[in-house]
Amino acid sequence: RDESGQWREQQQQRGGPFIRSGAEFGAFQTPIGLREISCFQFVARGESGLYAMISLHFKVKHMKKIIIAIDGFSSCGKSTMAKELAKEIGYIYVDTGAMYRSVTLFALRAGLFDADGNIQREELRDRMHDIDISFRLNPDTKRPETFLNGENVEREIRSMEVSERVSPIAAVDFVRAALVAQQQRMGREKGLVMDGRDIGTAVFPQAELKIFVTATAEVRAQRRFDELQEKGMPACYDEILRNVQERDYIDSHREVSPLRKAADAIELDNSHLTLAQQQEWLRQRYLEAVGSV
Ligand code: DC
Question: The pTM is what?
Answer without folding.
Answer: 0.79
